[in-house]
## 1
Amino acid sequence: MMEQPAKTKKSRDELKMMAREYAKTHRRMGIYQIVNKETGDYLLGSSMDVDQVWNKEKFTLDFGTHMNKELQKQWDQYGESAFELQVLEELKPDEEYITDQSERMKYKRRLKDLLEKWEEKLNASQG
């Protein structure tokens, strides 16, 4: 029987260090909307991680526990295939890494302001 090449294992400390470094990196931040393609209805939101938000939203919708009852009702009626997540605007970071919590809060405030602008913009286009 042939011997398998030895796999390089990372120590627990190396893995912890890699996890800490990953936690300091920025995710794709921005404003998104979940759109019902059948009705045109949408839910507007913001996230520090727009790539992860769709999985989170689908998970709660699939379990029937979404906080937005109208969205939940439509999801139950039309099914997942009638919905899509659209990223309306990305928020670009000023720095490559987040070194402390105040930097993260800075982006949360910016996202809040950006979300308000998108709400105004979408409300104006409907009225």
## 2
Amino acid sequence: MTLACQTLAFADGSALLITFTDGTTASYVLSEKPRVTFGQGTLLITSAGASAEYERATISRFTFVDAAELGIGPLTEGSMVFEYDGTTVRMAGAPIEVFTTGGTLIVRGTGSVSLSGQPSGIYVVRSGRHTVKVVKK
């Protein structure tokens, strides 16, 4: 089942806000046209060049809000903002681990890690309990 986030009721300044059972949140700007898919026990959100998967049991609720009220840009995780420019992953002050899709750890750092020396492909980025897939072209 797919939840279509592109509706006439929400302007470009709207966001999807996911609240987890531990009180943390993740936000997705709707102007980026995220695709929300419910799998077997998971919620998968995919947008331009990144995706995030969450256990449905850890989600308390999701709502649509004005992005300006949240002070967010692209993908956010609680009070941390996830940024990916095609070669560098940034999450200010947070520990970051990057894995191949086969599970091999290729780089670890805090706040920022570079994928510039890695071949094109899909990589799994983990920070705390959050996991995001990125595409390096």
## 3
Amino acid sequence: MILTSFEETGIDEKYYSIYYTIAKRYFVNLSKEGSNVEEQTEEDNYAISSLNLANEYITYYAKEAEKGHCEQWCDTIADKVEDDYWAYHDAYDFIENEEEKEKELLIHAKSLSEDPVFVERYIYLFKEQKENSYEMAKEYSKAFHKCIDNGKSQNYAHGYAYAVSENNYLDEYCKMFAEVYDLAKEHDKNDGEALSFGKLCTDVLDQGIYSFLKKEYLRKYHENWQLEFYYQKICEEEEQERNRALTQDERNEIREEIKWHMTQIRKEE
């Protein structure tokens, strides 16, 4: 009866021993719990129910095993009879050996996509317990490759992809974030510093970089390259407002004003 039921699943016979063991286990457990199927003997009822449960179990087990996962990972997914984010997270958490669990996570990520950008981002989001890790990593990867195809640098592409997938900024803001992130990485800032720099500049873009950022920006970001970036952004905004190019004298006035603000900030400190 067990063999016939297994053959009807169409699953590779190499999984029969697992199917047999799990069907027996379900039968024993159901026998202890009792039955609610009418017009059948208790033994028939337990047998049918246990085989139905075994069918579900082996379907999930074989699916994960074919990806290359270890027995423990496969058993966790199959036992939950689910393959959503939290089932995968439990499969990951239940593995005690750190090297083994990272190996299993990599197999899982690569089973979703062979794109290395997706894989790296998915693993990061997975560990951050983002329930929509797959969707976010997919969006990140799409945005990243779009930038690369348009001739942008890898740092710019990563910054743009981050803004798109994490914050859902309008495209104008994503481009600003990417520009700032790229600039920070060029000046040897780590990811955390580059992201913080990008968030400040992006979050206040619509409030006017000239008026809003004088103190907020200059107090925190006053390295030469950061001051130059601020200067260029002020000039761009002024030219947009005046609908013409700034004269050299006007540009010099902006530089002097930035210097004045920096002097005031240092006095306050």
